[in-house]
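Retro notes (design track)

What went well: tokenization of the new backbones is finally stable.
What didn't: we kept losing track of which sequence belonged to which structure.
Fix going forward: every design gets posted as structure first, then sequence, in one message. First example under the new rule, 260 residues:
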């Protein structure tokens, strides 16, 4: 039986280091595991993000369409386990496009389950999420918005406005209601970040990879470093400036590179 594991986020919960570790060990995990990251399912991720903004049936239908297309593309894959890993499968990060949470994620997970079972009826589909404590998660999301968007709120204002979005357990409960009959597991960053392979260990636990096999894997040295307070202040000032979007992107890129 083919096993399909959907790792759909959440953002800023160690997903980048997890994916980098899996990517680094892609050849070692073969032929048992086929890893599909965002570049290998870009259309599906974009449809999921579009639905998180619109909540339109059409966009949810496109999620199903692209999921079926992806599974059909992988039909001849010999690996018994396929891992689909991208936080964008849960939609946009809260705070973007006036989104105040992951309210679309449960519906997206249901759409994925329906589409994948239609394309591969015998597949064992399960869902895996990484989570994080509310306060550090909100701070990390805020720093990401400073870096990647025109965030003009200060951190305190952001935390006050988006505090409800940090209730990731509530979203997981809703996901479980939307995909009855499918395993839904989660792992907290605080519990796994210090393990030899970091957050990837949590997904390997879900995968059931043996210790002997796990010992052959290499950690990824790359991590998403937190932004120092001085850099966050400068990014906020740039976001509040009168620079046009193009000039703003260039100024922020130069600033970040100068402090790397």
């Amino acid at each position: 039986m083919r096993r399909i594991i959907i790792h759909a986020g959440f953002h800023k919960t160690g997903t980048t280091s997890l994916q980098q570790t899996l990517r680094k060990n892609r050849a070692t995990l073969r032929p048992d595991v086929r890893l599909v990251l965002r570049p290998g399912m870009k259309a599906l991720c974009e449809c999921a993000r579009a639905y998180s903004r619109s909540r339109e049936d059409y966009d949810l239908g496109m999620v199903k369409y692209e999921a079926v297309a992806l599974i059909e593309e992988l039909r001849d894959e010999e690996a018994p386990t396929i891992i689909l890993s991208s936080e964008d499968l849960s939609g946009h990060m809260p705070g973007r496009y006036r989104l105040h949470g992951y309210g679309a994620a449960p519906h997206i997970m249901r759409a994925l389950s329906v589409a994948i079972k239609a394309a591969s009826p015998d597949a064992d589909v399960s869902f895996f999420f990484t989570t994080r404590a509310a306060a550090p998660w909100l701070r990390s999301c805020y720093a990401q918005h400073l870096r990647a968007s025109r965030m003009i709120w200060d951190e305190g204002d952001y935390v006050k406005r988006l505090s409800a979005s940090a209730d990731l357990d509530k979203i997981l409960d809703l996901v479980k209601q939307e995909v009855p009959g499918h395993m839904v597991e989660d792992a907290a960053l605080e519990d796994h970040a210090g393990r030899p392979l970091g957050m990837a260990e949590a997904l390997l636990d879900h995968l059931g990879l043996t210790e002997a096999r796990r010992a052959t894997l290499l950690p990824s040295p790359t991590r998403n470093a937190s932004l120092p307070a001085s850099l966050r202040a400068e990014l906020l000032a740039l976001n509040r400036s009168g620079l046009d979007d193009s000039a703003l992107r260039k100024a922020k890129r130069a600033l970040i590179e100068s402090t790397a």
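Added context from the reviewer: The domain at 3-134+167-224 is CATH 3.40.50 (Rossmann fold).
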